[in-house]
Amino acid sequence: MLVRVVRGTAIVVTGLMAGAFCYGAINLAPTFWEVPLQMRLTFHAELMKMNSPVMQTAMLLSAVSSLALAFLSRGRRRLLAACAGALAVATFLITRFGNVPINGRIKEWAVTSPPADVVDQLQRWDFFNRMRTTTAVVALILLVITALMASREGDDPAEESGAAADGEREESAVR
């Protein structure tokens, strides 16, 4: 039962993280290039006020739940869950060391004026955004694969032995 709860949690929070990043990459990022620069900078700065704590929480929960699933799993499912956890951590690191510094500069530019290389820096932000979106989506795919494997092969051995023992106790109680 515990493995199922942890797996479900990992899939849900990683799905929310990947979905939010996909929405941003597919809808917001291209739109940013179609509006006047000052509008983009102002909106981007305001968006990050709410987006930062929400996405940091999603990345943390994704990493923790995926790594917990790896700890509770065996064999290939353990490897897949560990890789999903590593990808969630990579998503956080890309965000923290790629996007966040540029977000800080965007906040400044929104109230002052952007530098001459603003387009290059915004393109760099887009690159990091595509990278973290990819890592988040791949993490989700790996977690879904673990669930498909579990439904095909049965739950992890640790749980199966517990369930088998419970079933044996029930049978002996009936006799």
UniProtKB/TrEMBL annotation:
Organism: Streptomyces marokkonensis
Chain segments carrying region Disordered: 153-175
Tagged with keyword Flavoprotein: no
Composition skew (Basic and acidic residues), residue ranges: 166-175
Protein's recorded name: Anthrone oxygenase family protein
UniProt keyword terms in alphabetical order: Membrane, Transmembrane, Transmembrane helix
Segments passing through the bilayer: 12-33, 53-72, 79-98, 131-150
Highest taxon in the source lineage: Bacteria
InterPro entries: Anthrone_oxy
Pfam families: Anthrone_oxy (PF08592)
Keyword Membrane assigned: yes
